[in-house]
Specification:
This protein is of the alpha/beta class. The chain has 13 helices and 5 strands. A 5-stranded parallel beta sheet has the order 2-3-1-4-5, with helices on both faces. It is globular and about 60 Å long. The N and C termini lie far apart (about 75 Å). About 5% of the residues have low confidence.
């Protein structure tokens, strides 16, 4: 019993590693710009436009930050790293350096200076991204009305929704993402730039000029011929790769039962209004 007590007291006194690991250098860290938008909201079109600028490199969806966010959010992992003497700043710099080790070769091969990451799943890990890049990241938020998004989601394979996919689950997914984005913009407005799909389609040059201005870049006419540029293939919709002009897709839910249209519009009235849509017609104001 006495030996067990001594062991317990020793563990209490010395159970945590007493070393402190020195932080990694952040000289090679890359802080990306993030395109934030739910699935089927025009993110692929925006990716091609951004990637057509001489200084912007927008690869296919990267996805890996979701895994890093899950690890960071796991309390047992955090505790285990602490017992190794790996404090919060060290872990952050390690994860950031790992991310940069994946971003950097792609950026280098493309010969560009700014990496833009367009991954729809990142809507749900914005707090992690903010923590990882210590509030220095910029965000381009792109919105699209919820009924068109739900209709498009329902017709395409969307991994997080496939187990039990209905129009309602698609619509609820859009609602949650849109609410996250609206709240994020309210909290971090100076780091955010807002786009709306319908406005992008109707005024490509004006919208993209504003976006480049947000990023501190000059307008380039080659952006209007994004389809002539070489863009690597990822998870995006194949139709977006085939387009030679921007064709707005709206109102595709018109064949739904009228009661469903009315019900879903009403359930998202506040969200649509805050984005800037007429909640009755879903037209961009």
């Amino acid at each position: 019993m006495l030996d067990k007590l001594r062991t317990r007291l020793r563990d209490m006194a010395f159970g945590r590693t007493q070393i402190r690991v020195v932080n990694l250098s952040d000289e090679t860290d890359i802080t990306p710009v993030f395109v934030i938008g739910t699935f089927r909201s025009g993110t692929t079109l925006l990716r091609f436009l951004l990637d057509s600028h001489s200084q912007l490199c927008c690869p296919p969806e990267t996805k890996f930050l979701v895994n890093l966010a899950e690890m960071h959010g796991d309390q047992s992992t955090t505790r285990a790293l602490e017992t190794m003497g790996l404090e919060n700043d060290y872990v952050r710099n390690s994860l950031k350096s790992f991310a940069s080790s994946l971003y950097s070769p792609y950026l280098s091969v493309k010969g560009k200076s700014i990496l833009v990451d367009k991954t729809p799943e990142y809507v749900r890990i914005l707090d992690f991204i903010h923590w990882l890049y210590e509030g220095r990241a910029k965000y381009i938020l792109i919105y699209r009305n919820g009924l068109d998004v739900a209709q498009s989601m329902f017709k395409q394979v969307i991994e997080p929704l496939e187990e039990n996919k209905t129009i309602d689950t698609c619509f609820d997914y859009w609602k949650k993402d849109s609410q996250i984005m609206l709240e994020w913009h309210e909290r971090h407005g100076t780091s955010c730039h807002k786009l709306v799909y319908e406005n992008l389609c109707s005024d490509v040059k004006g919208v993209m000029e504003g976006t480049f201005d947000f990023l501190g870049l000059e307008w380039e006419e080659t952006v209007l011929e994004w389809y002539r540029q070489s863009h690597d293939i990822g998870y995006e919709d194949i139709k977006a790769r085939r387009q030679r002009s921007i064709q707005q897709s709206s109102g595709n839910y018109d064949d739904w039962p009228e009661n469903d249209i009315r019900r879903l519009k009403e359930s998202a009235r506040n969200i649509h209004s805050h984005i800037g849509y007429n909640p009755e017609t879903l037209e961009w104001k």
